[in-house]
Amino acid sequence: MIKRKIAIIGAGKLAFSLIPAMLKAGYNIQCVVSRKLNSSKSLSNKFSIHNHSNSIKKIPTEVDAFFLAVPDGEIKKVAGNLSKVKRDFKNCICIHFSGVENIDSLQALAKKGCSTGSLHIMQTFPSKNLIEIKNSSAAIEAIDKTAIYFLNRIVKKLGLKSFRINSDAKELYHLAGVFSSNFLVGNLFNAFTLLRSKDKNPADIFRTTSYTTLKNIFGSTPAKSLSGPVDRGDLYAIKKHIDALDSKIRLAREKDQLKLLRMNYIIQSLGLLEVVKVKYRKLNPNHLKIKKYLNEKLYKSDI
Predict the structure, then answer these.
(1) Any idea which fold 5-165 has?
(2) Are 71 and 48 in contact (CB under 8 A)?
(3) For a 10 Å CB count at each end of the chain, is N or C smaller?
(4) What are the tens digits of pLDDT across the range 167-208?
(5) Calculated CA dihedral for residues 173, 174, 177, 182, nearest 10 degrees
(6) How far is residue 127's CA from residue 99's CA, in Å, rounded to a whole number?
Protein backbone atom coordinates (compact mmCIF):
# COMPACT_ATOMS: atom_id res chain seq x y z
CA MET A 1 0.00 0.00 0.00
CA ILE A 2 1.31 3.45 -0.92
CA LYS A 3 1.99 5.44 2.25
CA ARG A 4 2.51 8.92 0.82
CA LYS A 5 -0.40 11.35 0.88
CA ILE A 6 -0.62 13.34 -2.32
CA ALA A 7 -1.83 16.79 -3.32
CA ILE A 8 -2.53 17.40 -6.99
CA ILE A 9 -1.82 21.02 -7.87
CA GLY A 10 -3.45 21.89 -11.19
CA ALA A 11 -6.82 20.85 -12.59
CA GLY A 12 -6.11 20.83 -16.31
CA LYS A 13 -6.34 18.14 -18.98
CA LEU A 14 -3.51 15.98 -17.64
CA ALA A 15 -5.04 15.76 -14.17
CA PHE A 16 -8.25 14.24 -15.52
CA SER A 17 -6.31 11.25 -16.85
CA LEU A 18 -3.56 11.08 -14.23
CA ILE A 19 -5.81 11.00 -11.14
CA PRO A 20 -7.98 8.00 -12.15
CA ALA A 21 -4.86 6.02 -13.09
CA MET A 22 -3.29 6.79 -9.72
CA LEU A 23 -6.44 5.99 -7.74
CA LYS A 24 -6.75 2.68 -9.58
CA ALA A 25 -3.13 1.93 -8.67
CA GLY A 26 -3.88 2.52 -4.98
CA TYR A 27 -2.41 5.97 -4.45
CA ASN A 28 -3.80 8.16 -1.69
CA ILE A 29 -4.79 11.52 -3.17
CA GLN A 30 -5.75 13.86 -0.36
CA CYS A 31 -6.66 17.05 -2.21
CA VAL A 32 -6.83 19.00 -5.44
CA VAL A 33 -5.68 22.62 -5.72
CA SER A 34 -6.35 24.98 -8.61
CA ARG A 35 -6.32 28.76 -9.03
CA LYS A 36 -10.03 28.54 -9.80
CA LEU A 37 -12.08 27.07 -6.98
CA ASN A 38 -14.69 25.73 -9.41
CA SER A 39 -11.98 23.82 -11.29
CA SER A 40 -10.63 22.13 -8.17
CA LYS A 41 -14.17 21.35 -7.03
CA SER A 42 -15.13 19.83 -10.38
CA LEU A 43 -12.03 17.64 -10.48
CA SER A 44 -12.28 16.51 -6.85
CA ASN A 45 -15.99 15.74 -7.14
CA LYS A 46 -15.46 13.70 -10.30
CA PHE A 47 -13.06 11.36 -8.53
CA SER A 48 -14.47 11.57 -4.98
CA ILE A 49 -11.48 13.38 -3.49
CA HIS A 50 -12.59 14.97 -0.23
CA ASN A 51 -10.52 18.16 -0.17
CA HIS A 52 -10.25 20.89 -2.78
CA SER A 53 -9.06 24.48 -2.69
CA ASN A 54 -7.80 27.44 -4.67
CA SER A 55 -4.88 28.00 -2.28
CA ILE A 56 -1.78 25.90 -1.65
CA LYS A 57 -1.83 27.23 1.90
CA LYS A 58 -4.89 25.06 2.53
CA ILE A 59 -3.22 21.78 1.56
CA PRO A 60 -3.66 19.42 4.53
CA THR A 61 -0.62 19.22 6.78
CA GLU A 62 -0.44 15.43 6.42
CA VAL A 63 0.31 15.72 2.69
CA ASP A 64 3.92 14.80 1.94
CA ALA A 65 3.88 14.52 -1.87
CA PHE A 66 3.09 17.40 -4.19
CA PHE A 67 2.28 16.74 -7.85
CA LEU A 68 2.51 19.86 -10.00
CA ALA A 69 0.23 19.34 -13.00
CA VAL A 70 0.39 22.99 -14.03
CA PRO A 71 1.53 24.67 -17.29
CA ASP A 72 5.29 24.61 -17.89
CA GLY A 73 5.71 28.33 -17.39
CA GLU A 74 3.96 28.20 -14.01
CA ILE A 75 6.02 25.43 -12.38
CA LYS A 76 8.79 27.62 -10.98
CA LYS A 77 6.29 30.16 -9.61
CA VAL A 78 4.08 27.50 -7.99
CA ALA A 79 7.10 25.75 -6.47
CA GLY A 80 8.33 29.07 -5.12
CA ASN A 81 4.97 29.86 -3.55
CA LEU A 82 4.72 26.36 -2.10
CA SER A 83 8.17 26.68 -0.54
CA LYS A 84 6.98 29.73 1.41
CA VAL A 85 4.24 27.76 3.14
CA LYS A 86 5.08 27.07 6.78
CA ARG A 87 5.70 23.33 6.87
CA ASP A 88 8.61 20.90 7.10
CA PHE A 89 9.57 19.75 3.60
CA LYS A 90 12.46 17.51 4.63
CA ASN A 91 10.51 14.27 4.26
CA CYS A 92 8.42 15.49 1.34
CA ILE A 93 8.67 15.00 -2.40
CA CYS A 94 7.59 17.25 -5.27
CA ILE A 95 7.11 16.03 -8.84
CA HIS A 96 6.22 18.00 -11.96
CA PHE A 97 5.01 16.59 -15.26
CA SER A 98 6.53 18.95 -17.81
CA GLY A 99 8.36 17.63 -20.84
CA VAL A 100 10.32 20.81 -21.54
CA GLU A 101 11.03 22.09 -18.01
CA ASN A 102 13.67 20.38 -15.88
CA ILE A 103 13.91 19.97 -12.12
CA ASP A 104 15.79 23.26 -11.70
CA SER A 105 12.31 24.81 -11.64
CA LEU A 106 11.76 23.08 -8.28
CA GLN A 107 14.92 24.49 -6.73
CA ALA A 108 13.04 26.58 -4.16
CA LEU A 109 11.63 23.38 -2.69
CA ALA A 110 14.92 21.50 -3.00
CA LYS A 111 16.56 24.19 -0.85
CA LYS A 112 13.98 23.38 1.84
CA GLY A 113 15.09 19.75 1.85
CA CYS A 114 12.29 18.47 -0.40
CA SER A 115 13.14 15.66 -2.83
CA THR A 116 12.37 16.71 -6.40
CA GLY A 117 11.90 15.04 -9.76
CA SER A 118 9.91 15.13 -12.94
CA LEU A 119 7.89 12.56 -14.83
CA HIS A 120 6.82 13.35 -18.37
CA ILE A 121 4.27 11.02 -19.92
CA MET A 122 4.62 10.97 -23.72
CA GLN A 123 0.92 11.01 -24.50
CA THR A 124 -1.59 13.48 -25.92
CA PHE A 125 -4.26 15.04 -23.70
CA PRO A 126 -6.40 17.11 -26.10
CA SER A 127 -9.30 17.50 -23.67
CA LYS A 128 -10.44 16.57 -20.16
CA ASN A 129 -11.81 13.28 -21.43
CA LEU A 130 -10.05 10.23 -20.01
CA ILE A 131 -6.94 9.13 -21.90
CA GLU A 132 -5.48 5.74 -21.04
CA ILE A 133 -1.85 6.26 -20.02
CA LYS A 134 -0.90 2.62 -19.45
CA ASN A 135 1.95 1.49 -21.75
CA SER A 136 2.84 5.11 -22.58
CA SER A 137 6.51 6.08 -22.55
CA ALA A 138 7.57 8.20 -19.59
CA ALA A 139 10.76 10.18 -19.01
CA ILE A 140 12.12 10.16 -15.45
CA GLU A 141 14.35 13.05 -14.37
CA ALA A 142 15.71 12.98 -10.84
CA ILE A 143 18.98 13.18 -8.94
CA ASP A 144 18.36 12.15 -5.36
CA LYS A 145 17.68 8.52 -4.44
CA THR A 146 14.32 9.20 -2.77
CA ALA A 147 12.86 10.76 -5.91
CA ILE A 148 14.31 8.06 -8.18
CA TYR A 149 12.86 5.29 -6.02
CA PHE A 150 9.48 7.03 -5.80
CA LEU A 151 9.27 7.66 -9.55
CA ASN A 152 10.31 4.11 -10.39
CA ARG A 153 7.49 2.82 -8.19
CA ILE A 154 5.00 5.16 -9.86
CA VAL A 155 5.83 4.08 -13.41
CA LYS A 156 5.65 0.43 -12.38
CA LYS A 157 2.29 0.90 -10.66
CA LEU A 158 0.85 2.86 -13.58
CA GLY A 159 2.20 0.46 -16.20
CA LEU A 160 4.34 3.08 -17.94
CA LYS A 161 7.42 2.34 -20.05
CA SER A 162 10.03 4.51 -18.40
CA PHE A 163 13.51 5.72 -19.22
CA ARG A 164 15.89 8.13 -17.54
CA ILE A 165 16.56 11.53 -19.09
CA ASN A 166 19.21 14.13 -18.28
CA SER A 167 18.05 17.64 -17.43
CA ASP A 168 19.87 19.19 -20.39
CA ALA A 169 18.18 16.83 -22.87
CA LYS A 170 14.57 17.70 -22.06
CA GLU A 171 14.01 20.56 -24.50
CA LEU A 172 14.99 18.51 -27.56
CA TYR A 173 13.13 15.47 -26.21
CA HIS A 174 9.96 17.55 -25.92
CA LEU A 175 10.55 19.14 -29.33
CA ALA A 176 10.76 15.64 -30.84
CA GLY A 177 7.37 14.92 -29.30
CA VAL A 178 5.95 18.03 -30.94
CA PHE A 179 7.18 16.83 -34.34
CA SER A 180 5.79 13.33 -33.84
CA SER A 181 2.36 14.38 -32.59
CA ASN A 182 1.39 18.06 -32.78
CA PHE A 183 2.78 18.61 -36.27
CA LEU A 184 1.11 15.40 -37.39
CA VAL A 185 -2.20 16.96 -36.32
CA GLY A 186 -1.31 20.16 -38.19
CA ASN A 187 -0.51 18.30 -41.39
CA LEU A 188 -3.75 16.33 -41.31
CA PHE A 189 -5.64 19.55 -40.53
CA ASN A 190 -4.18 21.00 -43.75
CA ALA A 191 -5.08 17.85 -45.69
CA PHE A 192 -8.66 17.97 -44.40
CA THR A 193 -8.88 21.69 -45.23
CA LEU A 194 -7.84 21.18 -48.84
CA LEU A 195 -10.32 18.36 -49.40
CA ARG A 196 -13.26 19.59 -47.32
CA SER A 197 -16.60 19.57 -49.14
CA LYS A 198 -20.18 18.38 -48.72
CA ASP A 199 -19.52 15.31 -50.85
CA LYS A 200 -16.22 14.14 -49.36
CA ASN A 201 -15.28 12.98 -45.87
CA PRO A 202 -11.52 13.57 -45.52
CA ALA A 203 -11.28 11.14 -42.59
CA ASP A 204 -12.55 8.27 -44.78
CA ILE A 205 -10.20 9.20 -47.60
CA PHE A 206 -7.00 9.61 -45.55
CA ARG A 207 -7.54 7.00 -42.84
CA THR A 208 -5.95 4.08 -44.71
CA THR A 209 -2.94 5.95 -46.09
CA SER A 210 -2.24 7.61 -42.74
CA TYR A 211 -2.45 4.35 -40.81
CA THR A 212 -0.33 2.55 -43.40
CA THR A 213 2.35 5.24 -43.27
CA LEU A 214 2.56 5.03 -39.48
CA LYS A 215 2.64 1.24 -39.65
CA ASN A 216 5.51 1.40 -42.14
CA ILE A 217 7.43 3.91 -40.02
CA PHE A 218 7.23 1.88 -36.82
CA GLY A 219 7.77 -1.40 -38.66
CA SER A 220 10.86 -0.08 -40.43
CA THR A 221 12.29 3.47 -40.38
CA PRO A 222 10.92 6.91 -41.35
CA ALA A 223 13.35 7.15 -44.30
CA LYS A 224 12.41 3.75 -45.73
CA SER A 225 8.73 4.66 -45.42
CA LEU A 226 8.95 7.77 -47.59
CA SER A 227 7.07 7.81 -50.89
CA GLY A 228 5.48 10.46 -53.10
CA PRO A 229 6.70 13.20 -55.45
CA VAL A 230 9.81 14.26 -53.52
CA ASP A 231 10.94 10.66 -53.06
CA ARG A 232 10.66 9.83 -56.75
CA GLY A 233 12.05 13.17 -57.95
CA ASP A 234 8.79 14.25 -59.56
CA LEU A 235 9.27 17.98 -60.16
CA TYR A 236 6.24 18.09 -62.47
CA ALA A 237 3.85 17.02 -59.69
CA ILE A 238 5.41 19.46 -57.22
CA LYS A 239 4.98 22.35 -59.67
CA LYS A 240 1.34 21.35 -60.17
CA HIS A 241 0.79 21.36 -56.40
CA ILE A 242 2.24 24.85 -55.94
CA ASP A 243 0.40 26.20 -59.00
CA ALA A 244 -2.87 24.84 -57.56
CA LEU A 245 -2.20 26.51 -54.23
CA ASP A 246 -1.31 29.79 -55.95
CA SER A 247 -4.59 29.72 -57.90
CA LYS A 248 -6.56 28.96 -54.75
CA ILE A 249 -4.87 31.84 -52.91
CA ARG A 250 -5.66 34.31 -55.70
CA LEU A 251 -9.35 33.41 -55.55
CA ALA A 252 -9.64 33.33 -51.77
CA ARG A 253 -10.99 36.23 -49.70
CA GLU A 254 -9.01 35.11 -46.65
CA LYS A 255 -5.54 34.37 -47.94
CA ASP A 256 -3.38 34.10 -44.81
CA GLN A 257 -4.08 30.45 -43.95
CA LEU A 258 -3.53 29.33 -47.53
CA LYS A 259 -0.30 31.31 -47.79
CA LEU A 260 0.92 29.63 -44.64
CA LEU A 261 -0.07 26.24 -46.03
CA ARG A 262 1.88 27.01 -49.22
CA MET A 263 4.97 27.92 -47.19
CA ASN A 264 4.58 24.75 -45.13
CA TYR A 265 4.41 22.68 -48.29
CA ILE A 266 7.65 24.15 -49.60
CA ILE A 267 9.55 23.93 -46.30
CA GLN A 268 8.40 20.38 -45.60
CA SER A 269 9.26 19.30 -49.13
CA LEU A 270 12.77 20.68 -48.60
CA GLY A 271 12.86 18.73 -45.37
CA LEU A 272 11.84 15.56 -47.21
CA LEU A 273 14.87 15.96 -49.45
CA GLU A 274 16.97 15.42 -46.32
CA VAL A 275 15.02 12.19 -45.74
CA VAL A 276 15.75 11.23 -49.36
CA LYS A 277 19.47 11.67 -48.65
CA VAL A 278 19.21 9.16 -45.83
CA LYS A 279 17.15 6.72 -47.87
CA TYR A 280 19.32 6.75 -51.02
CA ARG A 281 22.54 8.18 -49.52
CA LYS A 282 22.49 11.02 -52.04
CA LEU A 283 20.28 13.31 -54.13
CA ASN A 284 20.01 12.45 -57.80
CA PRO A 285 19.78 15.16 -60.52
CA ASN A 286 15.97 15.24 -60.32
CA HIS A 287 16.10 15.77 -56.57
CA LEU A 288 18.56 18.62 -57.05
CA LYS A 289 16.21 20.26 -59.57
CA ILE A 290 13.41 20.03 -56.99
CA LYS A 291 15.64 21.60 -54.37
CA LYS A 292 16.51 24.52 -56.65
CA TYR A 293 12.87 25.08 -57.63
CA LEU A 294 11.60 24.96 -54.04
CA ASN A 295 14.24 27.40 -52.81
CA GLU A 296 13.24 29.82 -55.58
CA LYS A 297 9.58 29.50 -54.66
CA LEU A 298 10.29 29.90 -50.97
CA TYR A 299 11.77 33.37 -51.35
CA LYS A 300 9.82 34.53 -54.41
CA SER A 301 6.07 34.67 -54.75
CA ASP A 302 3.87 35.96 -57.56
CA ILE A 303 0.79 36.04 -55.33
Answers:
(1) Rossmann fold (3.40.50)
(2) no
(3) N
(4) 999 999 999 999 999 999 999 999 998 887 666 789 999 999
(5) -160
(6) 18
